[in-house]
Amino acid sequence: MAVSEHDLGAALDAELGSGSQLAPAAAALSAAYRSGGRPGRVLDDPTAARAYAAVRMPATFAAVRAALRAAGPDLRPATLLDLGGGTGAAIWAAAATLPSLLSAQVLDGAAPALALGRALAAHAPDMVLAGATWTQARWPAELPAADLVTLAYFVGELRAEEQVAAVAAAAERAGAVAVVEPGTPAGFGDLLRARDTLLGKGFRIVAPCPHDQACPWAAGPDWCHFPARLPRSARHRQVKGGRLGWEDEKFSYVVAVRAGADRPGGRIVRHPFQRKGMVELTVCAARPGVQRVIVSKRRGADYKAARDAGWGDAWPPHP
User: Fold this and answer.
1) Section 119-143 average pLDDT
2) What kind of fold does domain 5-257 have according to CATH?
3) Where are the chain's structural domains?
4) 158, 139 in Cβ contact below 8 A?
5) Model confidence over 65-84: pLDDT tens digits?
6) What is the pTM of this model?
7) Whether the predicted pLDDT of 173 surpasses 80
8) Comparing C-alpha atoms, which of 42, 17, 30, 43 is closest to residue 106?
9) Do you find a cis peptide bond into 231, omega within 30 degrees of 0?
10) How far is CA 240 from the centre of its chain?
11) Is the alpha carbon torsion for 4, 8, 88, 158 positive or negative?
């Protein structure tokens, strides 16, 4: 049975309760992320692990789910390893997205995060989550083989040379690798390093890039990132001190596979801009790179598709 953000929210409600006691720890955690620093081993503390789950699990779930969906139906892993997975948001996202999935393992160095992740997964209406394996080991560590390895908001916690080593180790043990990082210039820099490592290991990119060439935004000043909108529960708003019932998580990602790459001709990399009788799209394609595409009303089906298209969607709609 596929899970949803509502199932994750119910599990968080059951394990975390009210957000008032977690607000100070959540504020410190958010300040560390906003400052561009690397929070480090914050999940070694049980209260910090609970604050992290309250603040970051819904957003991580939404970002990883969006990345895996963008990879398309050819991503059909039976086994999953979530490296540096903490409380397990990525395996929740995989269970919500990949019907082929039969087993999942989370590997992380923080025992409190793993214990909380195991308790949350026990509430899931899904046997993959309920039966997931939670293994304590700090990177570097010997990795078990898996069809898919996810590294969600993990490589940014490492030094540059450690990032390369972690992604390379994942590539050695998997048929597919998904890396998700914050949608910031720093996060995109870490993501590019992971992308280059995967290409160097002979992998092919399936999303978001429609090609294996050099990223046209690698030299700046802009950077490739995408939004994932998610609902905020009452607890989530209380912990974060927010009023809105939703938030947009901005993230950068890459999904790569060892064999085959059924990918679109291009990817919409900014919000479409609609004007009377036309839609303006910013599209990344193999050639000539990032370009502006104008779709007028005279183009019929393409115009209707452009009006319905969103940031992160494939383009053109008909391969």
Assistant:
1) 96
2) Rossmann fold (3.40.50)
3) 5-257, 266-308
4) yes
5) 999 999 998 899 999 999 99
6) 0.94
7) yes
8) 43
9) no
10) 21
11) positive
